[in-house]
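From the thread on structure requests for the teaching lab: each student submitted one protein with a one-line request. Submission from student K.M.:

"Model Rap-GAP domain-containing protein from Tenebrio molitor, tokens only."
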Amino acid sequence: MTGKYSMYTIYEGHEIMFHVSTLLPYSRDNRQQVERKRHIGNDIVNIVFVDVDDPTQSETAHSLFNPTCIKSQFTHVFAVVSVDRENQYRLSVFSDEAVPLFGPSLPCPPVFRDAQLFREFLLVKLINGEKATFETPTFARKRERTLDMLIKDLYSEHMTDARMGCVLFTCSFQHKLWPVSQIYWIEIIYLLGRNKQAN
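Reply posted by the TA:
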């Protein structure tokens, strides 16, 4: 439905799928390009590659990029990348004002001569950018709601198992061993109780 190809990598245990605009389906009849927007518009981090005719103008091209021209409720971080005539990568990072600072800090000037070093720096920066975005009010509320629902589901799913565990919990084992389901049940009740106190 959304194309045959994509870019994918693994970095330090993080699986990363890149939604590449030119690899997503293009429809001549659809001015909105919904198939592309539904992926790229729902990504927290976007990489914008600035292809400049004159490589000496890459710094100017970065300053001309305006993140507010891209409307999205989810995208909070933009990494702008360009290459000069000496195959050096220039990087600029724009983030929503609600996003806390995240590392690593850009070097001064933000130019990378080594492609492998740039790849590592960029991946770490973008992974940290996505993690920092989860602390913004928009995502913090959504995460809280999701966690609340998951805990309630776990509670209702394991309630029966926990009660059965309590029956198995005889006096002879009281000082030695607690059934796993009972410990898990106590933890869930504790979390739910803590959640009610917070509200």
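TA comment: The two ends are 42 Å apart (CA to CA). The chain has a mean pLDDT of 79.
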